[in-house]
């Protein structure tokens, strides 16, 4: 039986209320005394950090300026924890201490003095009272990993009292994290907590039973979150990269110390690599679906050099529901799924059936992506259907995102069913037809998209149509649909005619978008996922007054 919207909302409110009550019950009264205990007398190993480091950022930090999350904080000789921080994301980056990696590339003496001063102040200002952003489970997990990995920088020439305070705080944070692990928000944050606890169990002296338990808990989370096709349950292509940057050093640390490996660690890593290559355009960038933001080339290469799985990318990822059409140098990726759960939908986008298209090293059609450092309003805007290369109906997103502060920005309705069929051909051509019901309840219409890539790789044909469920031949009386093609900012647009626009890449490669049913219109756009920040760009649109034009056909043809 299908729930009405009101019943579904009531259920979600009761569910969230019970979750919060259960979390409070599980945590009880959090106090520093509750997690007190003995401290280790040493660290066994400093795990490798694969994240790229920046010597300029390291020099800036030693000079008293923190360049984090797209902002710069001038400290003027004070600790950054004594100042008002520019944004929540800045605070997240500061308290997670990932910036310690940059200190490896500056003068060792300066790096040691600077990091000891800042870590010491954190111990004094935040290490004694549990609460706030600094003690969110995912932030604590990142901090534990960073402190372990960069302990040689922090502890270089440290006196004994600082050394003991540092180790005591690490042990305290690990005990706290063990207690809150099960109540951590589902998805990447919870898995990172389990990674941090497994890493701490082998990098710090601990009992064999705690080491086995940490490995067992990590196994369970890996098995649950890394799906059979290698995709992460969040359906975010970037999540696989971020997790590998932690899982690969963890694997190597187990190997170096000769400990028994968690049974799921290597199989999950081996599954992730092909999924990561599935989302990779030939120019090296990852596709921008479901919360993904830009990926720097050195970030991706830092993990792909460990890839021993080989082989061509898969044609589909059936567990997380994506399809890939690849003919010669032409690649089209399509999102053919929905969020795996309500909890995981908090960062998912309303981009079902959206596409990205690249040729050679150039991305031509993209989604707008997620802004890494922008405020919440802009992040929510990036989740709308209009921020994706797909059709919208009556300026409405295909999935509805909650605006309730109590529920959070979860998806509360819209697309519930996606039907997909592939049409691979012996000649080498490839095609896909997919439809979704995101507009069925509100407007009584289904949306279908057909994408075909010719065997030459030089032509892509598309068809967009809206029709009544169960009555595909009955005319549509009302409604206006807009098909959007978001153009990568590096691409130049040239209007050849009312029905044709040329897309020209920096290296001269050109494609022409043509539609004979309606005009191809060029409009202002915003590209959220640029390394420099939110950036102006352009989009091409096809406007369909459905009473007159319920279906359009378009083509992209390589011109040279």
Describe the 3D structure.
It is built from 14 helices and 21 strands. It is α+β, with helices and mostly antiparallel strands. The longest helix is centred in the first third of the chain and has 23 residues, at 5-27. 43% of the residues are buried. The model has no long low-confidence stretch (mean pLDDT 91).
Question: What's the arrangement of secondary structure elements?
Answer:
Blueprint: H1 5-27, H2 55-62, E1 65-68, E2 71-74, H3 88-96, H4 108-125, H5 137-149, H6 151-155, H7 160-180, H8 188-203, H9 208-225, H10 237-257, H11 265-278, H12 297-304, E3 316-317, E4 322-327, E5 330-335, E6 355-359, E7 362-366, H13 376-381, E8 391-393, E9 399-401, E10 411-414, E11 418-422, E12 430-436, H14 440-443, E13 445-453, E14 459-468, E15 480-487, E16 492-497, E17 500-504, E18 510-515, E19 521-527, E20 535-545, E21 551-558
Antiparallel strand pairs: 1-2, 3-4, 4-5, 5-6, 6-7, 7-15, 8-15, 9-10, 11-12, 12-13, 13-14, 14-21, 15-20, 16-17, 17-18, 18-21, 19-20
Can you give keywords for this protein?
single chain; 560 residues; alpha+beta; nine-stranded antiparallel β-sheet; eight-stranded antiparallel β-sheet; 21 strands; globular
